[in-house]
Amino acid sequence: VDFLIHERCTPPLGFIYLKATPETCFSRVQKRNRSSESGLALDYIKRIDYWHNRFLVEKKEISPRLKDIPVLIIDCNKDFVANPAEMDKHLAKLQAFLVHTQRIETRSLDTTYSVNHSG
Length: 119
Description:
Layout lengths: L1 H7 L6 E5 L2 H11 L9 H16 L13 E5 L8 H23 L13
Parallel strand pairs: 1-2
Helix pairs in contact: 2-3
């Protein structure tokens, strides 16, 4: 992955991590009941969760060019589709994050400030 960032890709201005527990994700997979997801095991979702946390939260074993990129963590354990107040809360965080990352862009990618909101 390192070669892509250095040679072919411009680093993103930010990451948006829609975080839910593996159990919540698994429950939603079962509820959707899609044939393409029928073999998805909870253990697999737990491994995905581990690696996402390692990359986006802990920032372990990633390219130095990605370490200072801000991350917005949105807690998606609550159903925000059926809950307008929860959706509004997420949208407000998202809007603030987008404004923040645009300011970073206008300062020539000075990404020394990191956003990490989980609540």
